[in-house]
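Contributing: when you submit paired examples, paste them exactly as shown. First protein:
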Amino acid sequence: MSATVLNPTSFEFDVLIVGSGLAGLSAALLLPPDKRVAIITKRAVREGSSGWAQGGIAAVWGKGDTFDAHVDDTLVAGAGLCDLEATRFVVEHAPESIAWLQKMGVPFSEEDGQLHLTREGGHSARRIVHVTDATGAAVQRTLIERIQQRPNISLFEHHTLVDLITSAKLAHSDPHAANQCLGLYALDDVTDEVLTFQAPHTILATGGAGKVYLYTTNPDTATGDGIAAAWRAGCRVQNMEFIQFHPTCLYHPHAKSFLISEAVRGEGGRLLLPDGTRFMPSHDARAELAPRDVVARAIDFEMKKGGFDCVYLDISHQPLSFIQEHFPNIYARCLELGIDISKQPIPVVPAAHYTCGGVKADLSGRTDVAGLYAIGETACSGLHGANRLASNSLVECMVFARAAIQAIEDANGASAMPLPAWDDSRVTDSDESVVISHNWDELRRFMWDYVGIVRTNKRLERAAHRIALLQDEIQEFYAHFHVTRDLLELRNLVQVADLIVKSAQARHESRGLHFSRDYPQLNPEVRDTILSP
C-alpha cells in the first residue's frame, strides 16, 4: 500500500513516525496493516541510538522477582521524582514486550533453555534480558527485517525533520480551535528539497540530545530534533535538567563514543584509580552497583581530585571464556585498540548518555498538541524521574509505542486540509558554512564545561549568555539561507541546550542527575520542572 502523492514534493499518510529506533519501529509494526505509515529518519534506518544499546531490557522474568521490586528499584534510582502510575504501567507491561520481541524473532541469550538474565546497577535482582552485549543491534536488525516485509510501511531514509505543521501556524486556521498537528516538513538530504508530509497522526520517536555535549555515548543522530520541534509547535517539556552521564565510556583517542556496558560492573567489574586502588566503596555502600548518577559523580570527583584523564574498569579476574561469552563485542573492540580486557583494566570516563526529560506526554504518548505523540527518549513519561534505572529505556520504547498506537486507533484524526508547500523563494545558498561548524563546536564545549555532571549558578549563567548569542546568530542564518541538515541539527541543539539550562536554573536543590554546588541539599518538596513555550 503506497502513500497518496499529492504532488512530487507532497505525500499523504495515515500515520507519520519520525525516527527509526526501537520506539519508532515498534510503533510502525504495531499499527494495523491497513494504515499507510511513513517512517522518516535522517540517516540510514540502522543508525539510531537503540542499535547502540549494549546491556539489555529490564523485565520481571525470573523466579523470586516481582513487579513491586522492579517498581521500587526504579523509584529509588529516580530519586523520588518518578511518576508511580507511569512506572507501574511500564513495569507491568514489560514482560509482554519481551514476549513480543521473541515473537518477532529476536535471538535473546539463553542458558539451560531459559532466557539468561543479567544484573545491572540499581537492580535488586537479575532481570536484564539481553543478546550477549549487543542487545540493541540485534533488536534493530530483527525489526528492520520485519519492516521490510510490510507493504503498508514506507521508509524515507536521509530525510531530516525541519518542523511540524500545526493548525495554529496556518493563516486560514480558526484561532479559537485547539491546536492540531497536521504533518511536517522534512529535508531530503539527497535532493536538497524540503518535502511536505501530511497525516492526522504524527509520532515523534527521534531519541535524545546527547550531541549537545562534547563527550557522549550517543550516535551523531542524537540532536534533540523531536524535542525542539515539539517545543516550537507549542508543547511543554518536562525535567530537561536531568541528563544522565554514563559512568563508563571507553577513553581512547581512536574510540568514538564506545560504551562499556553497565553489565560489566553487574558481572563483577571493579572501578580503579590509576594506581589500582578501588574507590567506589568509599562513595556508596552499593559500590560499583550504585545507580549511574552516583557512579558518574564518584568518577568525576576522583578524576578532578587526582588530576587524572580517566579511571579504570577491571573485569580481568573473570576467566577469558566468561568474558568472551558475555562481552564478545566489548572484548573484540578493545582488543582492536590494543586493550586485552582479560588481562588489563579498561580506561573509562563518564559521557552524556541519556535525556531523562523531554516532551511532556501522558500514558498514551499524547502531547499538548492534538494528533502529536512523543514516545521513547524524546518523551518525558514520568518513568525515569531524576535518573533512569539501567535498561529501563528500551522497554519504555515498546510499552509506549503500543499505548500510542491504541490511542491512535481510538482517536478521530484531524480533518484533511491543504498544507502549504515549503517556501524558500527568499533565501540563498550560504557561502559561510564555517559558521555552523564553529557554533556547533562552541556549544558542545561550553555545555560540557558549564552544564555537566556538577553545576553552579555561575556556570549556568555563563552557558545561558552564550546560548542567547548563538540563538540570535543561528536564527539569522536560518532566515536567510537554504536549510541543510547541519543547520537544522544545530538549531535544534541550541534550542535543547536552552531548555536544559533554564530547567537547571529553576531547580534549587541537588536531586538525581542534577547536582548543584550552590544547592547541595535535597528539598523536602518533590516537584517536576515543566517549561511552557
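Second protein:
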Amino acid sequence: MKTADVLRQAQPSLRRFWPALGSGVGTAVSAIALLAASGWLITRAAEQPEELYIAAVVVAVRAFALGRGVFRYLERLTSHDAALGQLATVRAGMVRRIVPLAPDGLATTRRGALLSRLVDDVDELQNLPLRVVMPLAIAGLASLASVVFTAFLQPAAALALLVCLVLAFALSVWLGWASGARAERQLAPLRSRLSDALLDEFVSLEVLTAFEATDAAHARIRAADEALRRATVRRALAQALTAGAVSLLGGVASFAALLVALPGLGQGGFTGPALAVVVLLPMAVFEVFGPVPLALASWRQVRSAAERVAATVPDGIPDGLPQHEPDATAEAASLGTGLSLRGVRAQWPALGDADGTRQGESLRGIDLEVRPGERVLVTGPSGAGKTTLAHVLVRFLDYQGSFRVGDREAAEVNGDDLRRTIGLVEQSPYLFDESLRQNLLFAHDRASDDDLWTVLERVGLADWTRERGGLDAALGERGGLVSGGQSQRIALARALLAGFPVLVLDEPTAGVDPAASDALLADLLGAVDADRAVVLISHVAVPSDLLDREVRIEDGRTV
C-alpha cells in the first residue's frame, strides 16, 4: 500500500469536511476582525466623535466576539466528527487488509509493533485533518484576507505583513526540519520498542523470574523509555523554538507596519484609527498563524505514521498466501469422500519469520489421501515440510497442484468455509487471557455448561478443572497458567466443540515430557469421534495401534 493512499484515506471528503473548514475560517476572521475593530473603536473614541459614528462599530465588536465563540464551537464539533468518523473507516480498512495476511503473512511483525500501528499510528492519522489541513488552510485563507484588507488601507503595510508571513512560514519549515524532524520520525518506532519491551516483560514474567533475568528486562524497558523521553524532549524543544521565532516575527510585522505606514498618516484619508488597525492587525494575524509550525511538525509525524501503516499493509497479498478467494457462504465445505492431494507444492511467503527459517521450508510434491474417519500419521525430520502441509490443509498458505475437498478444488472454496470443515490444532495453541469457559466458548458460543463439561471429560480435563475451581478458572496470558499438555487438551476440546469433520494435529506432544507423550496422544486421539478424520503431524514415533496408516515426508516430498 502506498503512503499517499493512506493519507488520502485519512482525509475526510470535502463534502464532510467543508463545514469544519468554514467554521475554522469564521473563527479566525472573527478573531482578526475583533482586534482590528477594537483598535479602531478605541482610537476613534479618543477623538470624542458623536456617538452615531461609533455605534455601528460597537455592534460589530460584540458580533465578532460572539461569532468567534460560536464558530469555535462549531469548528470543534464538525472537525472532530469528520476526523473520528474517517478514523474508524481507516482502521476498519486496515484490519480488512491485514486479515488475509494472518497468520503466515505477518510473521515478521512483532506483536508490539503491530499493536502500535493498529492503535498509535492509525490514531496519529486523525491529526491530518485536525492538526495539519485545518490549521494550514485556515491560516492561509485568513492571512490572505488580512493582507488584502490591509492593502486597501495602506499598501506598504500590506507588503510588510506579507513579507513577514512568508519569512515566518519559511522559518517554520527550516527550523522544524533542522531541529525536530529526526526526533519526530523516531517517536513512533520508539513507542513500538517500548511496547515490545513491556509485552515481553508481562508475557514472559514467570520465565524471566525463574531464570533471574528480570533485571535485564527492566533495563531494556528503562532504556526504551529513556530513548522515547529524549526524542519527546527534542521535539518539544524544536516546537518551542519555532513558536518563539514566529511570535517574534509577529512583533516585527507590527513594528514594520508602523514604520512604513506612519509617513502616510493624514494623507489620502489615512487617519489615526486606520493606523491603529494597520499596526494591530499583524498581531491578530500571527495569532492565527501561530499553529502553522505545529501543523508542519504534525505533518512530519502523520507522514511517518502513514509510511509505517503502508509498510504493514502491502499493495497486494504476497506470493505464498491464498489469492482472490471466492465469497464466503458461512457454510462448511462438504467433505464428501475425503481429502485428496496430488503433486501439491507450496512455500511460505517472502516475509517469512524474523530469522528467515521458514522461507526455505516448502512442499515440492505431496500426494496424500485422507478418507472420512481415517487416522493418518504424517511424519518426517524437522524442516521436511510437515507444518507447511498443515497450513496448506487449512488454507493459511496457497498451493499449486491439486487439493480437493470432496468433489471441489480447495482453491474454489472460501478459506473460512474450508476451515469449518478442516480444523487445525497447532503445536503452540493460542489461549486467551480469559476463563476456561470463555476459551471454550470461542469455538461454540451457544454451548451450555453441560456441553463444556462433557467435552472436558472426553479430553481428560474434567478432574483438573474441578481442582482449579470450575469453568471460571483463569488460564493466564497465552495460557501461562497451564502446562503444555493441558493447553493441547484445551485446544482439542475447542476443536471437538467446533465439530470439524477433519482435525489436523500439528506436533501435539511438542513441549511435553517424552514419557507422557504416548499417553497424551492416546487421550487426544481417543477423544476424537470415530467418524472424524485425523491428520496427525509428528516427528516422533507414535504407537501404531492409534493410527490407520503412516505417510512420510522428506525434503518437501512424500516418500
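If you have annotations for the second protein, write them as plain sentences, like these:
The chain is about 60% helix and 10% strand.
Residues 373 and 521 are 17 Å apart (CA to CA).
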